[in-house]
UniProtKB/TrEMBL annotation:
Residues 1-60 form the Guanylate kinase-like domain. Keywords: Kinase, Transferase. Belongs to the guanylate kinase family. InterPro entries: GK/Ca_channel_bsu (IPR008145), Guanylate_kin-like_dom (IPR008144), P-loop_NTPase (IPR027417). GO terms for molecular function: GMP kinase activity. One of its GO terms (cellular component) is cytosol. Pfam families: Guanylate_kin. The keyword Kinase applies. This is Guanylate kinase-like domain-containing protein.
Amino acid sequence: MEELEKRLRARGTETEEQILKRLRNAQAEIEQGKSPGIFDYILYNDKLEKCYETLKKLLGLHDYVAPPPKSAIEINLPKDHSVSKIDDKIIINCNPSGVEKESNNMIMLDVSFLKGGAPCRTRGLYFRAID
């Protein structure tokens, strides 16, 4: 608790009332965590690397090496294309202006399920060809 109070005060971002509330909440969480049957494991992050290694062991990931990411499907857009957005959908028209449509040359990106953002960790970007 002393370390938490020290860190909160050093930040200088909370009022005295907010600091006291955070300390009360932390104390209540610690007490609740001691109740039997609530948690299987308790991790302390005072030593971040040690905590991280312990977490990986608990999850069975200690010696896990992630496979390289799957190759992305390549889409080559022509230089002359247009883009429009409707709600969470992005429409890419690959037909050059003034050229009659010969085939399915529009792509719809659906970003409504997009999650993540870290490299190789983004999920939920869906696309399909449309008429």
